[in-house]
Design goal:
The chain is an alpha+beta fold. The protein folds into three domains: 2-157, no CATH class; 161-220; 222-432, Jelly Rolls, CATH 2.60.120.200. 35% of the residues lie in helices and 20% in strands. It has helices at 2-8, 49-73, 78-102, 122-145, 162-217, 388-395, 426-432, and strands spanning 228-232, 240-243, 252-261, 268-275, 278-286, 292-296, 299-303, 313-320, 325-330, 333-338, 352-355, 374-382, 413-416, 420-423. The strands form two sheets. It has a seven-stranded antiparallel β-sheet. The longest helix has 56 residues, at 162-217. It is rod-shaped, with a radius of gyration of 54 Å. The termini are far apart. Residues 1-50 are annotated as: Disordered.
Length: 433
């Protein structure tokens, strides 16, 4: 400061005169003249100028501290704080320069500072008060320009703290989670409704198909009861026939049927038997370009059968749990045999037999790519191994054997999803051919 430099060069005061303390505020920099004040104040004069100046310095310092405290407290708006600090600095620098320009060296002649008034005159003190008041007014104006949330000088102003922001974020997260759960429920409801609608459509289609069959064929009962065929015209996951009887526990079996496939590639699944705990207890299927397979308890054996020429074929599959031996017959002739297919595994009881679909769960969850397309007739099943002569007689229509476990009877076969029953006698068809 220029005042401090000047004070360093000031001569020692005269004897008997106590030195007057120099001002210490930031706003007033010009030193007081080093002369002894009068013992008694002039008549009519107010309080001593030094006391007034000290009061003004204290007031200005208090205002400056208040501004600094406000700057420290305003964390959410740094740009506004910088602007306020800059304005305060400009005000202080401007006031200091106005005093410094009018200040003189200690002990030397001094120019008038404000309106050519003496430094220690009441008018000079009044002008200093006006300058401080003007500074305070400018600070108040700057505070009023701040956003309401940034003005935290009083306890009544609204304050958006971090806790409030955190609470708001939690509320928004709860709303978002609630919306996601609502959408999940809606999607589940839509899926459930679609499944229900599909089942209703299948039931309606089955009723319509049965009605059409009744109108075209007259009475729904066939004479004899096994003189019919099941037709599955389209590869879907909802057209099939279901046997109303289940299987007992088996240690051997023979299953025979007549098949006519309409698929160009991949015969599909003529029949499948699922049991509780095992969806692939017994499955006969041909998928894609793979050979026909027999699955027992999820164990697989490939069968050398060829049934994709669009004509009727008689097939028989025989199996025994002893060493897992199996035999495959096509049109009365044995085409293959092997062993170790689910050896010593008994066939589980109380399952579901489906014609035309492969089951992924007990009685359902069909896959259209594994479905059978064509016609099925004379599906019978025995709990023992038929002899080659018996199998040949069935294929040549010389024997008429009904299965002792599953019989091909109109009352025991239910068609669903659009599959139909038609009057059919395979031996008569072969004789016509």
């Amino acid at each position: 400061w220029a005042g401090e430099a000047a004070r360093a060069r000031q001569p020692a005061p005269a004897a008997g005169c106590a030195p007057r303390p120099a001002p210490t505020g930031r706003f007033l920099c010009t030193p007081l003249p080093a002369e002894c004040p009068s013992d008694s104040p002039a008549p009519g004069d107010g309080p001593a100028p030094a006391e007034d100046l000290f009061f003004l310095h204290a007031a200005a310092e208090q205002l400056r501290q208040t501004a600094l405290q406000q700057r420290d407290q305003i964390l959410s708006d740094q740009e506004t704080i910088r602007e306020l600090t800059g304005k305060l600095s400009q005000c202080e620098n401007g006031l200091e320069l106005s005093f410094q320009d009018s200040a003189a060296l200690w002990g030397g002649p001094r120019k008038d500072t404000m309106g050519d008034l003496p430094w220690d005159s009441p008018a000079m003190v009044q002008e200093l008060e006006d300058a401080v008041r003007s500074l305070k007014d400018r600070i108040d104006k700057i505070e009023q320009e701040l956003p309401p949330r940034a003005n935290i000088s009083t306890s009544s102003s609204p304050v958006l703290t971090r806790d409030v922001l955190h609470t708001k974020m939690e509320e928004l997260e709860e709303q978002l989670l609630s919306k996601i759960l609502s959408l999940e429920k809606e999607r589940s409801s839509v899926t459930s409704n679609n499944d229900q609608q599909q089942q209703e459509v299948e039931k309606e289609l089955s009723v319509l198909q049965s009605r059409v069959s009744e109108l075209e064929q007259g009475a729904p009962h066939f004479n004899p009861p096994n003189a019919y065929k099941v037709t599955i015209p389209v590869r879907t996951n909802y057209m099939y026939a279901r046997m109303k009887k289940s299987l007992p526990e088996l240690f051997a079996f023979t299953v025979c049927m007549w098949l006519k496939s309409k698929a160009s590639s991949g015969l599909g699944t003529p029949f499948s038997y699922s049991a509780p705990g095992q969806a692939n207890e017994i499955v006969l299927m041909e998928w894609g370009h793979s050979p026909m397979e027999l699955l027992i308890n999820d164990k697989v054996a490939q069968l050398p059968l060829n049934l994709k020429d669009g004509t009727w074929h008689h097939i028989c599959i025989a199996w025994t749990t002893r060493d897992g031996v199996w035999w495959a017959y096509e049109d009365g002739e044995q085409r293959g045999s092997s062993e170790n297919l689910a050896a010593w595994h008994p066939i589980k009881p109380h399952g579901v037999i489906i014609l035309g679909q492969e089951q992924d769960t007990l009685g359902g969850r069909f896959d259209a790519t594994q479905a059978f397309v064509g016609e099925i007739a004379q599906f019978n099943m025995w709990d023992h191994i038929l002899t080659p002569t018996e199998i040949l007689g069935l294929a040549n229509c010389t024997f008429h054997l009904q299965g002792n476990v599953i019989q091909w009877d109109d009352e025991l076969v239910e068609v669903l999803g659009g599959a139909t029953k038609w009057s059919f006698e395979i031996c008569e068809e072969r004789m016509k051919a």
